[in-house]
Inverse folding.
């Protein structure tokens, strides 16, 4: 059972309250008409699928109902942090240095 | 290679079973091969077997970071079927089913393929219409599938409760009689034994860390934990780790890796004669020859490489089984495990050439790769040997995600995988 911190409710709650919503920070194309087939493929289908740190979206579906972003390690399933939707991708190396 | 027969069994029985020899050597890597296959699961070992047997290519190495058959080959629920909706899929999975038919004879190794039938339950009007559409489509493609009334379903699978007091009543079922189960480990072992006997090296506990390319872009070999190995052709058949391996060759794949869990009960006497899948309540169940009920459902919702998965999904799966088969409510579960499955956006595999010369892939089988093991091995071997896809796997390209010619079994199955 994952324990997930909702950055809006400021509570750490069981996985069953949340719905996974795919990789985070995939921006919708600004000018869809100008996109090539390869760019559409990258936007729609290509995912980073890393073995390690993964930036992903979750939705607190049985709570506040809001989307937020999370940083999780895909090998240990351990959450490093969660943050509100719309915020930029956190700089993890800077965070690590600050912690040290 | 020892030929297995009643005579060899008798002879060894008389000598106290002390003279059985190892079935394949634990090989160490040579400096160079004609073909390297990354991943020693059923698919990879099958490809090595068919490369050696049908195409005469025996300078082949199958490399695995763990032990052979230790990934999804040893972690699935052993179900074999081919009742897929689209023409391309029907041909692909039925090709595998044709090979399953005489696989034990071909390998001289008992893979225990049991055509006990796979029955898919319809619980609502949508299920009935969707399954009947599948049946019509299957029959037009020459794939065995038939419709059963609730009474016929009950006759075929007596533990089924077809009374109308159920929350999810059984309104009928689709039955594929050619489908069933097979012994998953035996498939890997049989292919390993057959391939090794023809000169293939099976190299275990040797992680492939990178695929190397030359100045012209073509593949030159693989970096491994046991050093660099040269090869002009590399086939990646690494299931959940495929996108990680291919990233080292500069390729980004339309894949996401999810944990798929399964569990077994304590062993009991024979009670369950077939495989039953309930897509709407969302679980499937069969009984192994050891007597355990083998139970599974969908993947966990999040990307992970943990080979473990979360307990909420197990709870959901067991709840579904108890709902469909109240008879099993007091059954105790023995163990559960997870495998990492690589899922494509359209839930159909990618099997063919990659944009890098000399690089081939067999991936994206998602939650349903075991059933296709002989077919995937056979078609991957063909593609590698001839440097072009077989007509059966020709539609399953990586390029379909650019052209838009998807084979959308995700929508066809009408259920979360």
């Amino acid at each position: 059972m994952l324990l997930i911190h909702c950055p809006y409710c400021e509570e750490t709650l069981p996985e069953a309250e949340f719905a996974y919503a795919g990789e985070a920070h995939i921006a919708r194309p600004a000018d869809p008409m100008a996109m090539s087939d390869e760019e559409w493929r990258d936007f729609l289908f290509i995912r980073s699928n890393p073995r390690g740190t993964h930036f992903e979206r979750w939705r607190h579906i049985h709570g506040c109902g809001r989307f937020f972003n999370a940083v999780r390690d895909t090998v240990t399933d351990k959450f490093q942090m969660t943050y509100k939707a719309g915020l930029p991708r956190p700089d993890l190396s800077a965070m690590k240095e600050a912690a040290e | 290679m020892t030929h297995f027969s009643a005579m060899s069994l008798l002879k060894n029985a008389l000598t106290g079973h002390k003279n059985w020899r190892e079935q394949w050597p634990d090989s160490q890597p040579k400096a160079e091969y004609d073909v390297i296959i990354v991943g020693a699961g059923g698919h990879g070992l099958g490809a090595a077997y068919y490369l050696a047997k049908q195409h005469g290519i025996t300078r082949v190495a199958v490399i695995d970071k763990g032990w052979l058959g230790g990934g999804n080959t040893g972690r699935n629920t052993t179900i074999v079927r081919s009742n897929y909706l689209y023409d391309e899929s029907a041909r692909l999975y039925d090709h595998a089913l044709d090979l399953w038919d005489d696989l034990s004879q071909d390998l001289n190794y008992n893979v225990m393929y049991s055509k006990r039938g796979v029955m898919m339950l319809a619980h609502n009007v949508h299920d009935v219409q969707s399954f009947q559409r599948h049946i019509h489509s299957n029959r037009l493609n020459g794939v065995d599938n038939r419709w059963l009334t609730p009474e016929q379903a009950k006759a075929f699978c007596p533990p089924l409760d077809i009374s109308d007091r159920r929350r999810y009543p059984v309104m009928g079922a689709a039955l594929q009689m050619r489908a069933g189960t097979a012994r998953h480990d035996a498939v890997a072992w049989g292919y390993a034994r057959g391939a090794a006997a023809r000169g293939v090296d099976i190299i275990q506990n040797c992680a492939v860390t990178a695929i190397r390319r030359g100045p012209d872009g073509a593949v030159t070999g693989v970096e491994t934990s046991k050093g660099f190995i040269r090869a002009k052709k590399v086939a990646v058949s690494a299931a959940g780790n495929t996108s990680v391996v291919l990233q080292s060759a500069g390729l980004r794949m339309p894949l996401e890796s999810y944990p798929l869990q399964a569990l077994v009960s304590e062993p009991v006497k024979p009670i369950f004669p077939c495989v039953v899948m309930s897509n709407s309540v969302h679980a499937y169940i069969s009984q192994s020859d050891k007597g355990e009920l083998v139970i599974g459902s969908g993947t966990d919702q999040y990307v992970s490489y943990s080979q473990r998965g979360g307990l909420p999904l197990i709870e959901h799966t067991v709840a579904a089984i108890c709902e469909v088969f109240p008879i099993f409510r007091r059954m105790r579960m023995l163990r559960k495990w997870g495998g990492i499955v690589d899922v494509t956006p359209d839930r159909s595999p990618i099997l063919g050439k990659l944009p890098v010369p000399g690089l081939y892939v067999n991936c994206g089988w998602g939650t349903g790769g075991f059933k296709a093991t002989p077919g995937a091995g056979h078609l991957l071997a063909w593609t590698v040997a001839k440097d072009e896809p077989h007509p059966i796997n020709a539609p399953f390209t990586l390029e379909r995600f650019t052209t838009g010619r998807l084979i959308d079994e995700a929508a066809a199955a009408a259920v979360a995988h």
